[in-house]
């Protein structure tokens, strides 16, 4: 194997590992907010490393500059935080309880009505 | 800033026309020459040299990549440790950023770094509510966000 192939393989493996960790986190976290973390974020860097590996492969091995792959990274960056914000805010407003491990909750004072019957 | 970008683009196009070769590389080379010309003439122009902001933006991207990797390592450590020892919490992080654009950027950067997730904004747009999977020290976390992302964003926009 050449050096390029090694680099691409390592990047893709890191990406796969991070996505796996995201899946494990999805099972292990106790509440909806923690699960939003692992569903959106471990996946972010996972997708990015896989995409960078693909981009490098096409650029160096095939000699093709693929702008599409770079755009994929941009769109992941644009959509992931927005989706996470929407899911967690909707969950909080409709009164989904926080896990028992939670130590503080500054947001409670903004939505006293929605959180009345929780805890 | 818009005026300078237009000026720079015009210089790049003139460069390509003068060389009589219209490829992306020529345009890029002309753009770099234009940056150099604007840099030399910056005293005679009655505004800031716009590349300063571009450099600040690159610094912000580099900082973000560093934070992304560091906090990913932290989160992987937490997730794979056999004892699931976390203290999640929602923290109100006050911010000095004014415009909607800056606030959106800050909230997105907070969300994109693993371990923290922006959940909501306060009514007066003075603070962001951040959910974090591990907050042993509230003050330290607020300080970290102020020292890294907020400072870097202010360098870009001011």
From TrEMBL, chain A:
Q: Which family does it belong to?
A: Belongs to the CPA3 antiporters (TC 2.A.63) subunit G family.
- Gene expressing this chain: mrpG_2
Put simply, this protein is called Multiple resistance and pH homeostasis protein G
Q: What is its main location?
A: membrane
Q: Name one GO molecular function term.
A: sodium:proton antiporter activity
Q: Where in the cell is it found?
A: Membrane
Annotated membrane topology: Multi-pass membrane protein
Write down the superkingdom of origin: Bacteria
PANTHER family for the chain: ANTIPORTER SUBUNIT MNHG2-RELATED
Residue ranges annotated as transmembrane are 6-27, 39-59, 65-87
The reply on keyword rRNA processing is: no
Which keywords does the record carry?
Antiport, Membrane, Transmembrane, Transmembrane helix, Transport
Q: Does the keyword Secreted apply?
A: no
GO-annotated cellular components: membrane
TrEMBL record, chain B:
InterPro entries linked to this entry: Cation_antiport_E (IPR002758)
**Transmembrane region(s):** 5-22, 28-45
Question: What's one GO MF term for it?
Answer: monoatomic cation transmembrane transporter activity
Q: Give the record's GO CC terms.
A: plasma membrane
Record bears the keyword Transmembrane helix: yes
Family matches, as NCBIfam families:
PRK12651.1-3
Q: Where in the cell is it found?
A: Cell membrane
**Its encoding gene is what?**
mrpE_2
Q: How does it sit in the membrane?
A: Multi-pass membrane protein
Regions annotated as coiled coil: none
Official protein name in the record: Multiple resistance and pH homeostasis protein E
Query: What UniProt keywords apply to this chain's record, in alphabetical order?
Result: Antiport, Cell membrane, Membrane, Transmembrane, Transmembrane helix, Transport
Q: What is the similarity comment for this entry? A: Belongs to the CPA3 antiporters (TC 2.A.63) subunit E family.
